[in-house]
Amino acid sequence: MTLSVRIHEHGGPDVLTPEEVEVPNPAAGEVRLRQEAIGLNYIDVYHRTGLYPVPQLPAPIGLEGAGVVEALGDGVSDLRIGDRVAYASPPLGAYQAVRNMPADRLVRLPESIDTQTAAAMMLQGMTVEYLVRRTFPVKKGMTVLFHAAAGGVGLIACQWLHAIGATVIGTVGSEAKAELAKAHGCHHTIFYNQEDVGERVKELTDGRGVPVVYDGVGQATWEASLSSLARRGMLVSFGNASGVVSQFNPGELAKRGSLFLTRPTLMDYTATRKDLTESANALFEKVLDGDVKIEVNQTYPLQDAARAHKDLEARKTTGSTILLPE
């Protein structure tokens, strides 16, 4: 038996239920993984609430973890028992101390990256990788706007963009978060709850606007994102932490300067084994080079996942958060 935090229905944080479950032997192509750390991400909230459907109930949620391989299913030849591995990929079920996982969705960890750091960086770090290298490739000298700059994805993005040589404008909700973002490479911060973001971006760019806005917030920042873009700029809408943008007239893109809009997901950018390993290796390189430092600012016991969700939704967290099995 192993500890699993599962949902039997969709709803608020209190539907997260700790319980003991059996873990079967790994099937062909799978490994059994004893997890040492589990990543907390906003997509977990979407699965908990039902915004993103889960295959069936009851079910554990979670898409990110790291640990040690304990057993191999038939046909697994690329991994060995004792290997340290990490993942940020379906199937759901990371909120579990021991789980089975498809071997081709796991990546080996470099010796100098521990499992807690790995669990805090895989989903957020590979998200930043595809956003700034593949969705809209940022070049040295560009100025970009990144919403929620003090969050887990935001802090990694600020560092990565700074290393590229871009000027980073970040939105934040408090002085403390502004200082945190600046300490991680953000050049200018805007208080989204006090200032007109679009006007401030135009001031910082001599009236031009930015070529790209990275927006993982959604409804609350939608208008600000559009109004911050330069002519033929791109809005990269990669999340909806504040709510879904339910209605949008595409004619607005023409009206505001022939803008581009995309709604990418990490899973599409790591769908093949080649894409997955290239993304993970690019992230590992940035971390090992020191360009990106992963900061685990909150830890919770796995059985306290409900409290972790409450803090995440209340914007009490900064940087990365992990859950720790006992």
Automatic annotation (TrEMBL):
It holds the Pfam family ADH_N. It comes from the Bacteria. GO terms for molecular function: mRNA 3'-UTR AU-rich region binding; NADPH binding; quinone reductase (NADPH) activity. Signal peptide: none annotated. Residues 11-323 form the Enoyl reductase (ER) domain. One of its GO terms (cellular component) is cytosol. Keywords: NADP, Oxidoreductase. The keyword NADP applies. InterPro entries: ADH-like_C (IPR013149), ADH-like_N (IPR013154), ER (IPR020843), GroES-like_sf (IPR011032), NAD(P)-bd_dom_sf (IPR036291), QOR-like (IPR047618). NCBIfam families: PRK10754.1 (NF008024). This is Quinone oxidoreductase. It comes from Rhodovibrio salinarum.
